[in-house]
Amino acid sequence: ETGVTQTPRHLVMGMTNKKSLKCEQHLGHNAMYWYKQSAKKPLELMFVYSLEERVENNSVPSRFSPECPNSSHLFLHLHTLQPEDSALYLCASSPQGQGGEKLFFGSGTQLSVL
Amino acid sequence: AQSVTQLDSHVSVSEGTPVLLRCNYSSSYSPSLFWYVQHPNKGLQLLLKYTSAATLVKGINGFEAEFKKSETSFHLTKPSAHMSDAAEYFCVVRANTGGFKTIFGAGTRLFVKA
Questions:
Q1: Cβ contacts of A98 on chain B, cutoff 8 Å
Q2: Nearest to B98 among A98, A103, A107 (CB)
Q3: Euclidean distance between CA atoms B38 and A7, whole angstroms
């Protein structure tokens, strides 16, 4: 148990659906991250929030919309996704600092887009 | 700029024999280096990290890694493999200058034969 909880664990959606992924941490961390893990590709950093402000946005399509209402919660809102968006979406958190801190990962949401 | 290269996509060993997973990095700044492990259907778990202290770093489950600046390497080793070590391993680099950019290697899948 890492202290980072993601829901749902699995999600199947059609291309016209709207859904949201949720991440929650109670570790007192100030930074939260969304990563995408696709088969045979390195983990891709999507978004980073520090103190509830977005500090990284790595050219992610607008059909992915993050939200960080407070330092403990992070959402990823999904709409009009494509089949190539099927992947494992991982949330992580870390203390804010100088970059050497480790990341604490959730177990991920396995997303399938039909 | 930073990058990380895991030299083997797959490594297969017999139970009880040594494990070597290779990682080379490049970084414009003094880096922090990490190894994470991911078991099937799970999130990533930190094995060990290097942050400019001792060059030989000991982690959990008997793993260790040696930071070699001259070779820009951070290889992961274990003297004796166990069946439960079968998983995907990721080498990770972060700059020690602050910021949240975290670069993951493509991963090495470790197979352990009985």
A1: 96-98
A2: A98
A3: 18
- A106–B97 C-beta distance less than 8 A: no
**Closest chain A CA to residue B98:** A98
Instruction: Tell me the CA distances in angstroms from B114 to B78, B85, B95, one per residue in order.
Output: 17, 12, 39
Note the pLDDT tens digit of each residue in A72-109.
999 999 999 999 999 999 999 988 754 557 789 999 99
**Sign of the CA dihedral running B78, A94, B99, B1:** positive
**Cα–Cα distance measured from residue A67 to residue B78, given in angstroms and rounded to the nearest whole number:** 41
> At B107, which amino acid appears?
G
pLDDT value of position B1: 73
Show the DSSP H helices in B12-59 as ranges.
Answer: none
Alpha-carbon span B14 to B114, nearest angstrom: 6
